[in-house]
Amino acid sequence: MKHTIFALASAQGRAGVSVIRISGPQAFEVVTALLGRLPKPRFATYGALTWQGDLIDKALVLVFKGPNSFTGEDCAELHVHGSRAVLDRLYHIFNEVGLRHAVAGEFSRRAFENNKLDLTQAEAIADLVDAESEAQRQQALTQLDGGLKVQYQTWHGDLLKILAHIEALIDFPDEDIPQQLADQVLGEIITLKSEIGRAINDSCKGRQIREGFRIAILGKPNAGKSSLFNALLQTDAAIVTPIAGTTRDVIESHIHIGAYSALIYDTAGLRETDDVVESEGIRRARIRGEQADLRIWVIDSSEPLSDQQPELQSGDYLVLNKADRSPAATRDAIKQTLVGLGLNIFETDLTTEQGVKDIRQSLESHLEQALSLSSFPAATRERHFERLRDIDLSLERALGVGFQVPELMAEDIRQAMSGFDALYGRTDVEQVLDHIFSNFCIGK
Ligand SMILES: Nc1nc2c(ncn2[C@@H]2O[C@H](COP(=O)(O)OP(=O)(O)OP(=O)(O)O)[C@@H](O)[C@H]2O)c(=O)[nH]1
Ligand SMILES: [K+]
Ligand SMILES: [Mg+2]
């Protein structure tokens, strides 16, 4: 028989109320023993919890009869006073009667195993609990509501139809498959493949919302990168000194910009150097720059641009810093040379934080545009991307083979379908499930 598990569903530590969740075949038996009766399912009941004549606490008790519960099993919630002593006493009793403390993600895993959720929805619960920004909350909620599941089911259904058509043609009585029918099936595969391909490309915003949009601050030593980092975050987390080469490690911080959560990186100034420590810092700075979703180059506008050589790409931000030390004409001349490169250019004096507000505002509208959830992304985690790319490859193979060997093509379509099964979590091996659920916190 399956173990009955329990865990604190609310946060650890002293609290007005703590919620203990219990799930499994013994759940009702334990509640009955503690409360003296079993409450009507789904109705909150207030009463004394006692054990062997001893009053433990007065609590609000809720029970849910499986399968109509979160896990699909008999479940109970005890809303007790959030004191260490009350919890310890209850845990002790639970252990005595054979209940077991849940491991991380075990409630969600049971819900998944009992078909209450598919894997994408279970992932959404973890995301919702971790959500810090408004966009993360919305994305997780939509995914929990089946946002990914429905999309995957639609594509899976399309593949099933395609497979049926191919199999019908394989069984075609004539030796020769009619060209028109064959073309139609290939056309269906092409359409689906381009739809999935487009979704993969559009979906980086799903990852950017979940993990945070990555912004890297780059430039020569002493340009004012750390000053900008501090000004944007309103902290003094990064050391600022007149010594070139002050910042060595990448400094990372979360920043909330409008409804979005971003990760901002201050980096070591880029230059040629023999210093081993500094060159490692520069190597890391370059990697951050490559991986970033947005690059902010900072230059010292009182020095010639040619000495600073920011490696500008279209879409980058360029901050002409130290505006207090350069004539407006010089800054205008710099801007003139950069016209047409598709940059967002700002002027700042970071000693007074002048111009920082403009950068913040621009970042906000940039993120708004880059991450707006007008359509739900088709992937929010690397796992989803990997599977979708595999599916895309299977379809490419299917098109390559075509009706030269229809049996092989059918096999590629089946492979693509099993990719979707893995996305729902229907065929994934135990290890993958272990990995996914162990990243949950206990009580979920
Ligand atoms: N006058 C003036 N000085 C500035 C401005 N911004 C930064 N500074 C000064 O320039 C120096 C270097 O600033 P940092 O922020 O440390 O520069 P950095 O790019 O992080 O430098 P590294 O970490 O060494 O690569 C410090 O002394 C700052 O006070 C500015 O707008 N005007
Ligand atoms: K410096
Ligand atoms: Mg610095």
UniProtKB/TrEMBL annotation:
Q: Give the EC number(s) under which this enzyme is classified.
A: 3.6.-.-
**TrmE-type G domain: residues covered:** 212-368
Family under the similarity heading: Belongs to the TRAFAC class TrmE-Era-EngA-EngB-Septin-like GTPase superfamily. TrmE GTPase family.
A molecular function annotated in GO for this UniProt entry is:
hydrolase activity
Localization recorded for this chain is:
Cytoplasm
Amino acids binding (6S)-5-formyl-5,6,7,8-tetrahydrofolate: R21, E77, K116, K444
Cofactor(s) for this protein? K(+)
What the entry lists under InterPro entries is as follows: G_TrmE (IPR031168), GTP-bd (IPR006073), GTP-bd_TrmE_N (IPR018948), GTPase_MnmE (IPR004520), MnmE_dom2 (IPR027368), MnmE_helical (IPR025867), P-loop_NTPase (IPR027417), Small_GTP-bd (IPR005225)
Q: Which organism is it from?
A: Asticcacaulis machinosus
Q: Which SUPFAM superfamilies match?
A: P-loop containing nucleoside triphosphate hydrolases, TrmE connector domain
Q: Is Metal-binding among this UniProt entry's keywords?
A: yes
Just give the chief location class: cytoplasm
Q: Which UniProt keywords apply?
A: Cytoplasm, GTP-binding, Hydrolase, Magnesium, Metal-binding, Nucleotide-binding, Potassium, tRNA processing
Mind telling me which PANTHER family this protein's record contains? TRNA MODIFICATION GTPASE GTPBP3, TRNA MODIFICATION GTPASE GTPBP3, MITOCHONDRIAL
Cofactor: binding details: Binds 1 potassium ion per subunit.
- The name under which this protein is listed is tRNA modification GTPase MnmE
